[in-house]
Design a protein that fits this description.
- 53% of the residues lie in helices and 5% in strands.
- The chain is mainly alpha-helical and 147 residues long.
- Strands 1-2 form a two-stranded antiparallel sheet.
- A hairpin with a 5-residue loop joins strand 1 and strand 2.
- The two termini are 28 Å apart.
C-alpha cells in the first residue's frame, strides 16, 4: 500500500497541477481542499521543493507552485521521493534491494519471479503516468458520473 506521505504528495501535486501557470497556492488552501494535515503537508511540500518539483514564494501572494508542466511529473518520481520502493518484495527492488531472509535460491524462486513481473508492470504504469494524466482522468470521471 502507498504511504500517507505518498498519497498526500500526489494529491497536492494534482491540485498544484490544476493551477499550473497561475499564482502559487498557499499551504492552508491545499491542506483544506485536499483534507491533508497542514504540518504534514508542509514537510511533504518542502521535500518536493528540495527535489526540484516545486518552487515556493514567500510573503503576500506566496505559496507553492509546480516548476514543471504537470505532464512532466511522473508518479514513479513521486513514489520514489516519498515512499521508497516500487517493488512489493525487497528481493526484486531496483533501488532498495535486499535478500529475503527465507529465500534459499533467488534464481529458482517462483514467488520472486512472479513479483518481478509485478514490479515491471507497476514500474511501467507509474513511469508512463503523469500528474496531467491524473487530472485528465479526474475530469473524465466527473463527466461520466455527472458530479
Amino acid at each position: 500500500m502507498l504511504s500517507k506521505k505518498t498519497r498526500y504528495a500526489m494529491k497536492a501535486l494534482v491540485i498544484l497541477g490544476k493551477h499550473f501557470g497561475q499564482a502559487p497556492l498557499q499551504i492552508s488552501r491545499i491542506a483544506s481542499e485536499e483534507n491533508i494535515p497542514k504540518k504534514f503537508l508542509e514537510q511533504i511540500l518542502l521535500d518536493l521543493r528540495n527535489a526540484g518539483l516545486l518552487f515556493s514564494k514567500k510573503g503576500s501572494g506566496g505559496g507553492y507552485g509546480l516548476v514543471k508542466d504537470p505532464s512532466e511529473i511522473f508518479l514513479v518520481q513521486v513514489l520514489r521521493l516519498t515512499g521508497g520502493p516500487v517493488a512489493l518484495l525487497p528481493c526484486v527492488s531496483l533501488n532498495f534491494y535486499q535478500k529475503c531472509d527465507e529465500c534459499i535460491n533467488e534464481g529458482t524462486c517462483g514467488v520472486r519471479d512472479v513479483f518481478l513481473d509485478v514490479r515491471n508492470a507497476t514500474l511501467k504504469v507509474l513511469s508512463e503516468t503523469s500528474i496531467a494524466d491524473i487530472i485528465a482522468r479526474e475530469e473524465k470521471l466527473v463527466n461520466v458520473t455527472g458530479l
